[in-house]
Amino acid sequence: MATTMGDVSNVLFNICRITFFLHLLILASNVLLARCQNNVVPNQNLNGIPVLDNKLRVPIDNDRYQQQRGKLQLPANNGLVGGGYAGDQRPMLGNAVNPNLGLPGAADSRPLGDIKTGNNAIQDSKKHSSNKADRIAESDECRDDYNRFCSKVSKMNNFAVLECLQNSNKDSSTVLIRECNQYLWNYKMELTDDKRFREAAAQVCRKELDLCPGLEKFGAELLSCLVENVKDVEDTHCRQFVNRMEIITFSDYRLLQPFYSKCSDSVASLGCGSVQQTPQDVHLQGQTIQCLESKLDKVDKDCKAALLRIAELSSDDYHKDRALYFACRADRERFCDTVAAGEGRVYKCLLLHKKEKEMSDQCFEALTIRQRVVAVDVKANKQLIKNCRREIQERGCVAMEGAKEVSLSSVLLCLEKNESQHTIKYLPHLGDNHDLKKSLYATNLSGECQADLFDIRKSLMEDYKVNPEIITFCIEEIRSSCNGLRREGKTLHCLMERAMKEKLSPTCNQAVLNLLKEVKAGNDFRLDPILAKTCSNSKGALCSKIPAGDAKVLSCLMDNVDSELMDKQCAQKLYELQYFISRDYTLDHQLFVSCKRDAKMLCNNEQKNIDGSMFACLHNHLHEKTGGLSSECSTQVHRALRQRAALISLNPMIEKKCRADLGHYCMDQKKKLDCLQNNYEGLEPKCKQAVHNYTQEESEDIRMNKALMKACSPMLKRYCQESLKRKVDEGDALVCLISHKNDADMDPKCAAGIEHFQIVQLKDYTLTFKFKQACKSDIQALCEPSLKSKENVLTCLSTEIRKATLLGEKHRVSENCRAQVKFEMLQKSEDIKLDPELNKACTDDLRKFCSSRTPGNADSLECLRKQEDKLSDRCYEKLFNRARELQEKPEWDYFLVKACQQMIKTTCKSSKDPLMECLQNHMHDANMDTTCKQAVTQRLQEESRDYRLNPTLRRVCFVDIGKFCGEKRREGKADREMDLQGAMMKCLQGKLEEGKKTLSPLCEKYVRHYQVETALNFELDPDVKKACTETAKSMCAEAISQPGEGLVIECLKDLLRQKKLDNVKCKNQIVRLTAEGVADVHVDPLLQEACRLDLKHYCHGVMRGQGQQMACLLEALEDKSVRLQKECEKMLKDRKELWEYAAEVAPPETLNELYLQLSASPSRNHFLMSFLSFMAGVLFFGVCCGRATKRLPAGLKNK
C-alpha cells in the first residue's frame, strides 16, 4: 500500500512539473510572437510596458517616451534639414533635388533655396495630417491605398506599411495615387534627415556608432556609414533597423547620398532622370540606378564608383535593387518562393533559373544588368564574397576592405591560378541545385565557394550581355550575324563558329578567348549550356563512366568525335570550343596541369602563348630522349595532338603556315589535311615542314589519323587490341593494320585508308615513325644525305642488305633496321602503288593487260610477271629488276611469304638454309600445302628463265660459271630474247656429264638437284615449257592438273614411245630429256622412286653419277637370275625402248651424224638431188653474170 501511495505522489509531481514547463513555453511563444509582429524586441518603461516610437517603430527609452507623451518641442537644428552642411558644401541625404533633372512631383523638384531649416521644416512636414500623421496607414493621403493593398499589415508598424506600399506597384492596376506617392516621398525625406533618426540610431545602435566616429550629428552620412558597415553589426536589433532604412533609401536614388551628388551630371547627360516618368510614380523605385547601370561604360568615373558601391551595398538583399525587385517579383514567386531573402540568396536563385523559358523578359533584362555590374565589381555579388571570402583573402585576389572595384574576371583567374591540380571535390551537401558540381579541382576551396564559382561561370557562358568585353568588341558581329541569339549561350557559339571560319575581328576573337579562360570552359562541359545540351546523349553513350564534372569528359568526347554514337551537333559544338582550346593551352586543363612545370623549364616563358606557341614549344620537346617532357606531360601532349587532328582549324600552326597552299590546292576540299599531304612535294617550305611534323605524329600515334580511325576502328579492336592499350602505340597499330590489310574480313574502307597513308609516307622516309627510329643512323652512315624519299632510301638500304647476303659478308645494316626494311619491302611488293617507279613505268601495261586486277595483295604485280613477253620494254626492264631483287631476298616477296606463311612458320623459321632453298627442299613434303607449292613453283619457273634471277645458282656456282661458262654469262639489262638460264645450265650439265670431277661440290649438288626438279616439273625447263605446253594441255590434261609430280614429262615420254607425239619441237625436247636421263637414275625421279628398293638391294655400294647406278639396274634387268620389282622392271623396259627410239629420231649434232642419218633415210635420193640442183644453180649464176669486180689495165695490175 505504501508503495502504491509513493507511486501516485511521483506521478502527481511529474504532472505538476510538466504543467510548469508548458506555461513557460507558452509565455516564451507569446514573447517571440510579439517580437515577430513588431520586428524588434521592445524595451519596457518603468511600469513594464513596451514603448515604440510611433514613426520609426523602434524601442525608445523612458526619457524619449515621456518626451513623446508630453509632445515636447524637438530642439532646433542649427544646420540644414537632415544634418546637411552649410555654405558651399554638398547637400546630404534627403536634401534638395536639382529641378533641371525633370523629376516628377512638386516636393522633389523644389529649388535648393526653398528648403526650410530647423523646426519650421519639421512643422511643415507635419501639416500633411493631423495627430495621425505619424501613422502612414491613417494619413489622409495613403489611407485608401493602405486599405486596397496593405490592409493585412499592422497600422502601428510604419516600416511594414511603408514597405508594403512601396512594393505594391506590380502593374497599372496597383499603382498608388499621386497624393500617396507624394506623401511617401516627403515621409522618406523627413525620415532620413529627421533628428529622431539620429536619436533612434543612437538608442538602437549605440555600440555600432563607434564604427562611424564624428557622424553622430548628421543623419544622412550616419545612415550611409551604418549601411556600409552593416556586415560588422552584431546586434540583431541594430541590423534590423539599418536593413529597414536601406530599403527605404534604395527606393529612390535622390535619397542615396553621396550617390546623388556624384551622379547628377550623368543622370542628366544619359537621360536616366526620366525613366518611365509617370505622375503616380514619384519615387522612381530604383529605375534611375538601373538605367545608369545599363550604361555603366558611359558614366563618369566618380559616378561609376558610386554606382558600384550601391551595387555592393544592395547585393545581400534583392529588395534593395528596386528595379530588379519589381521586374522579378512574379519570377521570384514562380521559381524561388521557398528561398528566404538575404545574403544574395534570391539573386542566386533567379540567376539559376535565368535560362528557363518561363523567365519573364523584364526579369531577364534586370538580371543581365545586375550580372554586368558584378562583372565590373565582384563585390556586388554578396553570395560569392561571403562563400569565397577566405579563399579570396588567402590568395590576395581582392583587398576586401576599402578597395576600388575589382573585376569578376580577375577574381576568377586568380582563384583558378591557385587551384590545386588533382583532387576533385564533390558537393553533395549543397542539394539538388549543386549535385555533382565538381568541375573545379581544389583541395582548399570550400564546397560553397566551388558551387558559386560553377554557377557564375555557367552564367557567363549563357548570356553574352553579361560580359562587358564581348559587348564592347563583338557588337558588330553580333548585330550582323548573331542577332536574336541570346539565351543559353547561342550568341557565344555563333561567334565561336564564325571564329572557325576566320570571320571574327582580332579584338572580338580575343574577347571570346578571354571569356573562355575566365569560365575555364575546358574544365567542365556543363559550363557551356549549348555543349551540355547537345552532348548529353553522346556523353551517356560514350563517356558514361566518367563523372559529369570531370575535365576528362571533354577529352573523352573529343576522342570519340568520329564514333557512330557521336551526335553530329555535339561534334560541331565540340569543334567550336576546341578551336579556342587549341590556341591557348591554359584552356586545356589536363594539359595545363600536367605540363605547367615542363613549360616553365623548357619554354622559359609562361606568357608565351599566342596562337598556340606554348603548345608548339612543348611539341618540339616531345621526342627528345634526354631533357625532354615528363611522362605525364608527354601523354597529355599526345592526347592533345590526337584531338586536334580532327580538323585543320584545330591545328593553328599548320593553318597559319599553310594559308597560301590551302588556297592554292585545297579550296574546294573538305579534308584539308589529306589534301595537303597529297600535295606534299608542291608545298611551300614552312607549310611542308608543318605537314611533315604532323604526318610524323600520325605514324607514331594512329589515333591522330581521324579518317583512318573512323574506317578502321572495328579492325583495330579485332586485330590490334594490344597496341591500343598503350597511351601511344609508336607505330605498332599501323604495322598491325598493314599486316592484316589483305585479310578476307578486312573492311574495304579501312584497307583503302591504310593504302592512302602508306602512299603519303613514301614522300619522305621520316614520315614513317618506326622506320625512321630503327634506320636513322644506318641511313646517315650508308646513304647519300640528299636522299629523302622513302623509295630512294629503301633502295639504298636494300642494296646493302642484298650485297651482304649474296657475298656472305657481315651486314653493315643493323638488325633492327633490316627488320624494318623487310617490312617495308614486303609492302612494296604487295601493292604496286607503293612502288612509284615501277607503277609509273607500267601504267599503260597495267591498263592494257591487268585492268581487272586490284593494286594490292600482289595481284597487279603478279599479273605483269605472267605477261612479261607482252610488256613494253620500259616496264619489262623495271619488272625484271624488281623480280631479281625479290629472288635474291625471297623474304621480301609478299606473294611467296603470304602463300607459304604456315610452312615458313613451322619448317623454315628454324632452318639455316635461305628461305627459297628451304621451301624448295621441302616441296615434296606431305605438310606443304598446294598454295605454297604453286607459289614456289612459279618462282622456280622465273628462275629458270634467266640465271640472273637464280641467286642460289649464282652463289654456289659463281666460280664454276666464270671458269667454264664465261661466254654464257650476261649481265646488265634484261633481255627477254636470251635464254640465259637454259644456256648456263646446259653448259654446267655438260661439264657434269663429262665424267670428270670438274664442278665444285656445291655447284654439282645444285645442278643435279636442278635436273631432278625439271624432270618433275616440265615448266622449270624453259625449252620444254615453250615447246610442249600446248601439247601437254591437249594430250596430258589429267597429268597437268597435278604439277610437280613428274606426270606431264612421263605422259609426253609415253606419247614419244608410242610415236604419237607429232609436235616436232616438243618431240625434240622430249628426246633431249630422254637422252639426259641415261646419265644416271637420279635424273629420272620417277624411275628412281620405282627402283628404290632394287637400287638398295642390288646396287648397294655403287656410286651415284656418270651412269653407274643406271648401268647396275640394266645389268640386273638382263640377268635372268635377278628378280626386280615389277614396277621397276616395267619402267626399265619402257625406258630402254624409249632410249632406242630416241636415238633413232634424235636430231644430228655433228656432220658425221648428219651423213649417217641421211644415208639411212628412205628419202636420201631426194636430199642428194636437192643438193646437186642447188650447186648447179650457183654455177649457172656465176657463168651468166660474169665477174662482179671492175676490169683493170694490165699495167695497174703489175705495179
UniProtKB/TrEMBL annotation:
Cys-rich GLG repeats: 298-358, 503-565, 682-745, 812-872, 927-996, 998-1060, 1061-1121
UniProt GO cellular component terms: Golgi membrane
Subcellular location, record wording: Membrane
Keyword annotations of the record: Glycoprotein, Membrane, Repeat, Signal, Transmembrane, Transmembrane helix
Protein's name according to its UniProt entry: Golgi apparatus protein 1
Record field: transmembrane: 12-33, 1167-1189
Residue span of region Disordered: 113-137
GO MF term list: fibroblast growth factor binding
Membrane topology: Single-pass type I membrane protein
Compositionally biased tracts (Basic and acidic residues): 124-137
Pfam families: Cys_rich_FGFR
PANTHER family: GOLGI APPARATUS PROTEIN 1, SELECTIN LIGAND RELATED
Main subcellular location of this protein, as a coarse class: membrane
Origin superkingdom: Eukaryota
Lineage: Eukaryota, Metazoa, Echinodermata, Eleutherozoa, Echinozoa
Biological source species: Holothuria leucospilota
